[in-house]
């Protein structure tokens, strides 16, 4: 495609005019973007010298001399973005109101039974948060409001409460609160009989915790205040000061994440230490919290395992000599791998993802041909069966199942056209019962939309799955705008899901597509291994090939093809912008990880050392050279780039604000086109965006307004 360059003041895309003559094209204001100050910073490693003109932007994070200047630059970019999108303000409000109107404001989750109580959350009309509640013995019993998060969040621009953990005697609630969006939680303890919140306050932790069976000992995961690494598991005794908490485990390997959990049976407390390629568990009798944790199986290079406790044995899911994992078992008193016996063998075409335990059954989650399935096994008889799902593309997941004695599996189901649904599956009778389906207000009809699953051929011949959804009446003539979403990292599976907000896109003529590219785990464990470390570029070329396939098959054209991704998916956006800039009319990059080399060289940045197994350690010369060859920031060139909207958060703990800020500054200094480039920094939020259940829709409205402006859609 020959790119047509027109001044920003009258930016009108000829191709769009031909397709949408019935609309008035959006005219971008004729204003100059901010120009970031150039302050050369020299990086020399492996005899390679690189000049970084915008390294100074890290100073707000580092509390350096340019801290104020860095924030001022972000504010200037926000002002520019606000001016550029000023003509869409009314439309953004229309979109926000429209998306919000589809959400049932007064709603309630499906109750979950545990230890004599039904637990649920409910939302009230006009409220951003929720109330966490329970009823004793029966759903007809009097409601207890355990936490009113709407009240707790008052006066805070961001508020996250999670990790709800009820003591075995049902009298105490431990929960975590983050008011900054840095994922640094303070754990509080509430007496549910008196309503008193104890003075015990455990700072700088993850939100979750685990009660021992004595109802007074709490285990939790402590973080390093600077790097945010999960470094220690501590034991807290109710009524004592945090300073007196005992370290029961300290992780020395900075590439590992650690956490603490409790078996569903209540018998064991587990400490898990896991990196991308290896893991190690420790366990403790939950009745003896002062005992030392025992190592289940010492970590083995390139071996992952996880542990599930049954009444009489442990189950182990492991990839030891089994790339797609297998299921093993061992006695409760003989846990080393020499005692493991095979329950389900390894299969080349089936990925074993996990096990949910019950007193009489286990439910094994498997993935075959890119789709999940549930395999139910009776522990007494060994009889097995699969739960039946009929759609061509869907997503299922094991829901909340805290009752070890239950014979009912709670699971979730969704697809691109099926709203999120909660089912109870009776493992005795094999009957599924729909307990609740997300209610979409405004008359949504699934039959008005069509979903497809197709396969694009990658550069090396690999077939890559692509799932699509569009409104009926769509014609494959190359004239329709299409938004292609991708992620492709950490083995995270990009399963399809329903979004009521997305209807605002589909109803205005867009096709939405999700690419199951390598680096995820859509097609098995090898799919992940073929898209990480020294094979990372497969992720990017897969996505590009998916885009080319959709153009070749006339689902869209280059003039109407858009791409979106966030975090590691934002790295994907940066890479494909560099590698195939003329393929996309526009790109949305959210909290994008785009300064890969500099971030992975700086071990003071949160989570860097945890990521070495994913991206490589640039202190190794081969890893450095490969990383540098694709890192978006390193590879910005003097050439034309597509229209781009980049979104970040000042308090992001996962991908720091300075990565997208530096990237945008470098793009501005090098791009040779007049296409739109905007950076929006949310000054109150972090990696996950807004905490309220409606606030995030404002961000979605901005994204959609950007796409609609490029397409000339004004209402």
TrEMBL record:
SUPFAM superfamilies: alpha/beta-Hydrolases (SSF53474), Peptidase/esterase 'gauge' domain (SSF50993)
Transmembrane regions: none
Domain Peptidase S9 prolyl oligopeptidase catalytic stretches: 498-708
Stretches assigned to the Peptidase S9A N-terminal domain: 33-438
Keyword Hydrolase among UniProt keywords: yes
UniProt-listed Pfam families: Peptidase_S9 (PF00326), Peptidase_S9_N (PF02897)
Gene3D superfamilies linked: alpha/beta hydrolase (3.40.50.1820), Prolyl oligopeptidase, N-terminal domain (2.130.10.120)
Keywords from the named record: Hydrolase, Protease, Serine protease
InterPro entries: AB_hydrolase_fold (IPR029058), Pept_S9A_N (IPR023302), Peptidase_S9_cat (IPR001375), Peptidase_S9A (IPR002470), Serine_Peptidase_S9A (IPR051543)
Family to which this protein belongs: Belongs to the peptidase S9A family.
Protein name per UniProt: S9 family peptidase
